[in-house]
């Protein structure tokens, strides 16, 4: 009888441990954390504040993959030692996922002190973790720390945890390893969520349109090409800038259909202009790296071109160099197919960020577009002027044509023309225009109607 009740108690203890503690570290798990936070909030006065540190071991997965789970586990245990030592029993520590810890600091309310503490945590992980028997000199753990403060970042457990996650996500995706949750961050996430919802129906609801920005020849002064730029006006008549919605189109995969729609509409415009008596203008469309991931991308592009019967020599596809970093071979393969079809390829935003000449020589392209950030400074900074000249020499050596982008002033236009740039695109000549305004512009700049 006695043995039975002892067994029962042991069993219940085990069950309790399993429900509320992490097996590897003996720390509290998520359930225990929730209970703790709920009690803490219940017992808080109106003026009480406390901080939640959401700490992620950023490279634990890589450590697991490289050295095996046993080593990974030891790294986790060592990390707990570091955290416990630092918090000296003043905080509550929980392990909520394999690579994530939550530290609650009840007596920590002043944001300066909170930041100091976060910095201390980050610093204590700057030393290598030494493990007996491991045959490498130093194993470094990278931590990201997101911070949410009660009650401003959440007066209930769920909101508080969600916002600490948000701050941690931001810490992971930017170079700042410590990020406080802020109204700005919350606002941005809310806005993005809203945009994402709205985008799903935008194509069917005909909320997208195109504007066209003229590309002017430095020799003739006439428009020789137009770049199609996507515009989105929501059902409540708000215009959302492409920098905000295109990344979401990419994340959601909606870019596949929208990208093809852009090509379709751009070719429609090319033909419309010819039908209205204008000479054929080269039309360029921007491609996103995501579009290249679909096997039927080349086929779909081919179908659209055949449907509109546009001579491929009037079509240009703009790619950015950064998009070549992933699946390089496959992207190049698709670009080669486009080239074989007679389409032109332009390398967009050249000189913005890092440019790999190694990659550049391996891809087929006809044009380099010098990025606005270089053009901005050409007339008052010798360095930028020289960079522009070098890019032009490079392009000519590689037998490519050069367009200067974002040209806003007369001085910039003269400068790029004098260094033998071929074409100019920028507010100096024209902003991107809807179709009617484009026709008006073409008539005025002498690209006008034939005959
Ligand atoms: P981008 O391809 O570099 O396009 C040029 C951007 O520079 C356009 O901004 C244009 O309005 C702006 N711009 C042109 N000249 C000037 C100037 O003189 N001064 C200034 N300040 N800006 C100038 P926009 O239309 O906001 O487009 C932003 C980006 O969105 C584009 O940069 C492109 O990367 C992307 N985008 C636009 N349409 C599409 C599309 O259909 N598909 C994809 N994948 N991306 C697109
Ligand atoms: Ca472009
Ligand atoms: Ca550009």
How does this structure look, described?
This protein has 451 residues and is of the alpha/beta class. The protein folds into 2 domains: 14-181, Alpha-Beta Plaits; 204-444, TIM Barrel (Alpha-Beta Barrel). The chain contains 16 helices and 14 strands. The chain has helices spanning 2-20, 30-42, 60-67, 69-87, 111-124, 157-173, 183-199, 242-252, 255-275, 297-308, 328-340, 357-362, 372-375, 382-397, 410-418, 435-444; strands at residues 50-57, 92-97, 100-105, 143-150, 178-180, 208-217, 223-233, 239-240, 282-286, 315-320, 344-350, 367-370, 401-405, 423-425. The strands form 2 sheets. Strands 6-7-9-10-11-12-13-14 form an 8-stranded mixed beta barrel, surrounded by 5 helices. A 5-stranded mixed sheet has the order 2-3-1-4-5, sandwiched between helices. Helix 15 links the parallel strand 13 and strand 14. Helix 3 (60-67) packs antiparallel against helix 4. The longest helix is centred in the middle third of the chain and has 21 residues, at 255-275. It is elongated. The relative contact order is 0.07. One calcium ion binds at residues 227, 286, 318, 348.
